[in-house]
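Structure ticket #2291
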Amino acid sequence: MLLTEEQIKKMLVEGGFLTEDEYAKAAAAAKNNNKPLTEAVVDLGYLSDAEMGSLVATERGLFFINFLKEKVDPNVLALLPEQVARAQRVVVYKKDKDFLWVAMVNPDNYEFIKLLEKRFQTPLKVVLATPAGIDMVIKNYQKDFLLQAKDLIVKMTKEFHEGDIIRLVDLMINAAHEKRASDIHIEPEEDAVIVRFRIDGVMHEFLRYSLDFHEKVVFRIKILARMRTDEHAQAQDGRFEYKVPQGSFNLRVSIIPVTRGENVVMRILSEMFQRLRLEDLGFLEDNLAKVKRAAKMPHGMIIASGPTGSGKTTTLYAIINILNKPDVSLTTIEDPVEYDIRGVRQIQVNPRTNLTFEAGLKSIVRQDPDIIMVGEIRDPQTAGIAINAALTGHLLLSTLHANDAATTFPRLFEMQVEPFLAASSINLVVAQRLVRRICTNCMESYFLDRDTLAAVRADKELVEMIKKISKADDLKKMRVYRGKGCNLCANTGYTGRLGIFELLEVIEEIRPLIVGKATSRQLHDAAVKQGMRTMMEDGLIKVFKGQTTIEEILRVAKS
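Resolution: structure written out below.
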């Protein structure tokens, strides 16, 4: 029998796994999204998929199978057709001398169990699996996308059909999506075309194919992105929607001419960013409060600063998600518009029609907005209009290229922004970088190796910072965390990314320094005295929380 809501509540709340408030939120989410209560608990992050499956199995007196850790025999899996496995949410995953082992989402489906026993003429051992676990195993019905692509390329060199190019492009996109890549790079070299994926900010080679096929691959991508197929000497941009069994996603395409053909980069635009919350980005509690406080201000500026690829726009989108309400008018000007947000008027920069950041921002101000987002402040004209908008009753969000929070102000001064205007208009600067998260499936603790210890000890300030945060006197005995490597993280030890931040609030003690055009060092030191946590400190706290590795912090925060 399936568990009733009352049984689930007793199991989770009385068992001490959830508070009453957390249970209520999960029950409401389950009702609103028309999902089982157990799935809502997992979606909200209160319990992992495996933890929930194990609890339900124990409550029902069943054995639970965690497919993150259990290997599946492909030959046994093939005993049950894929269509049946998908429809019934059941897989045959193991065979021994006594039993055929079957995992099901609903082990109460006795009629189907009898059908299987009749078909296989073997006693069955039925165990409980979660829907996510079954879905993971069903993927094994299909050969790995990489192997499919390699087989296809071998076939193409022997006997080529036009449809092979369509399939090759599909395999690249499907593989990138499955591996959580943010970008697909298709790069013509002297003797081959290299296909690379950017996963968690790091490039990985996926595939190589002959230059003979490259023009056809580029032609296919241009067709999908509605680009000019006869243009080979100019850069082109486009986008298209791609459907997968789980739904669909958009890809933004950039093609530029290089010495050996055309270079293609496709960015995968995940729909999750539309629902992204500030809490998901990695802000520590006190910093989260600062961002929310600045977002509630009726006017002024919030600036996200950092190098390209540091997650600045993602932070602004998360802020927009909490500001986007029916009683406010919110307009953005972006280059490009990456995600469509319902209720927000979004403008795409277009230099061909003279719709620049400067011209667009001038027009936006005349449209009576409450909140404005400018994709990037990159010239004196845009900076001046943005500052004036923030001073005249608008809340303005934007990004700026700067190494840290304090350097934001000298960058604005270089753009001819008057110091007293910067001091009056800017409420908060969020400087950030992205680091890779440790894979929770294979996380282990360890002591630092000799090379890492040497790198840490070379910086006395860093050593003091680590001792203060870890409360350890001897670095050799300091326990930190890493991912050992598993199938879930492709043996990298990492899955996903999170931000490390430093937040400079423009408070009364800071304003006179800005007006006096203080150096970035002076501003930084003053902000630290007023309670600003540096990016390095923020990262180290996350190291000792087991969220990332010390190697990641040294790689990113010191760059």
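Closing remark: The mean pLDDT is 89.
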